[in-house]
Amino acid sequence: MRLTRYFLPVSKDVPADAAIVSHQLMLRTGMVRQNGAGIYTWLPLGFRVLQKIEQIVREEMNRAGAIELLMPTIQQAELWQESGRYDDYGKEMLRITDRHEREMLFGPTNEELITDVFRSYVKSYKALPLNLYHTQWKFRDEIRPRFGVMRGREFLMKDAYSFDLTEEGARASYNQMFCAYLNAFDRMGLTAIPMQADTGPIGGDLSHEFIILADTGESAVFCDKAMLDLPAPGLDLDFDGDVSGEVAKRTDFYAATEEKHDEAEFGKIPTDRQVSARGIEVGHIFFFGTKYSKAMNATVQTADGETVPVQMGSYGIGVSRLVGGIIEACHDENGIVWPQSVAPFEVGLISMRPKDETVAKVADDAYEALQQAGLDVLYDDTEERPGSKFNRMDLIGLPWQIVIGPRGIENGVVELKNRKSGEKTELPLAEAIEKVKAG
Ligand code: P5A
Question: With a threshold of 0.90, does the pTM exceed it?
Answer without folding.
Answer: yes
